[in-house]
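Q: What does the assembled structure look like for these inputs?
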Amino acid sequence: MTFKDNREFIEALKRTGDVVSIKKEVDWDLEAGAISRRATELSGPAALFEKIKGYPEGYRIFSGPLATWRRVAIALGFPPDTSIRRIHDEVEQREQKPIPPVVVKDGPCKENIMRGDQVDLNRLPAPMCHDGDGGRYIGTWCFSVNKDPDSDWTNWGMYRFMIVNQTTLAGAPAPGSHFAMIAHKYLSQNKPMPMALVIGADPLSSMASSAGYRIGENEANYAGALLEQPLELVKCETSELLVPAHSEIVIEGEVMPDTVAPEGPFGEYTGYRTSGYRANLMFRVSAITHRNSPIITMSNLGVPPDDSSVGGAIGVAIALKRRLQFHGLPVADVYVPPEGASLVVVVSVKSGGSEVAKAVKEAITKRRAWYTKIIVVDDDVDIFNMAEVIHAFAAKCHSYRGVFTSEEPGKGGPVTPAHRYDERNRRYGAVALFDCTWPDDWAEEDIPVKSSFKSIYPKDLQEEVLKNWKEYGF
Amino acid sequence: MAEYVTKLRNLGDLQDGANLELFIQDLAPGPRKYNGERVKAIVSSSIDNTPGGDVLWVRSALGRLQDKRWGLKITERLGVAMPGRPYAD
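A:
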């Protein structure tokens, strides 16, 4: 069973002990962020802050919705202890069956409407997440909705948005993003771009928005695929954009073509605050709609794991796998491990060698070089088990012949901590490939024999040992 | 006396008596805390030398808080929007 909104999801998390409801009053100014950060770093339960200082009874913050594999499994309708591999396999299978949304006339997100002079972002308990951030980030686990003016493509993307004042947000959608592709069509003609910011959609819609879905295809269809049923969308009050009807909060407005607003810095998914204060997109708000007793979702990013590196990384891994398959590469699995803070990607291949590994790197960095370390392993390695990956890296990556580096000017990520400040600003990219596959020109007799339980004992003995495991006293 | 915070890319811009264009954020407790606006203001290294002025806390571009507080005398309020094109900075 999947969930039509965050409220059903929270109830499910309560049943499994995967959320803590905090009744004690908590300050939106750093305290909620500090609690959330610690809980996230401990891979602990999500937090539902039920009493926010200075805000009406019932106004809540829900932090860390998909920051553990348990919560991702629950969101998908699985038992909490479902394996990472099973979760990836399931998302990959569902992704292949997109389900278009249905448009409804009304929805819970319309229970309260602020328009014109009534618009006041400060009426919502947006958190000040980290000490020294640029401001209150109402958008941390949220998604933008913008529509291509030349087609039916409506893009969803997960980007941070900061409150500048009562009626203005500033946001940081990346220059090479699908959001920016569409935005340039408006802004280059000096036209404002209609946009909606969705906060607190159901967990799988949020997950779909953070995936690298195909250019020109609607994430709403992907959300339907993950939900295994059509997502209900409702029209915005001040534009033709469609948004999930069961969202907690929808902020409507326009991105301005000729003005910008100060934004940042923000403690980002890499675990560091790396991109400085800058003039960024200015989003002028025309309406705010929200449910009664609205719940802001917060992903207090930082040192992993968190929502970005767990729930957000699955869709990215699957998109990368599709790309490698498209290039005809013998890919078995792709994993973006939380420990790697979305800077490391691990790929297993059915047949390796340096040429295959280099082709993997080439395909992954074709458009963007945000993954600065690419590890390619043979498919006898369970890439969802980082202990196995590190072992392959240590034992099989030749320290001279197995490491390939390249500079990727203009393709780099804006928040890569290892890059100098000026490099981050000009999107300098650099990528290192670690080839942990056996060279394809080695004779079979020369390939070391792996000494693991699964590989070095006869199959029937393995089965016997497993059968008697408890009897041995383990 | 109100208190504000600003972020500076170049901390060296902060010179005693300089008339600067700044983005300042209100630090008064309450729901409007951290709301911001662009202003022109004269900054002073001594709060005592800013009669009728306010207090300015300073952070670096990456958000590191500087030890020293400055005096601030707002001379012009410029609103929020800055002329410029998205993705140009």
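Chain B has one domain: 3-79.
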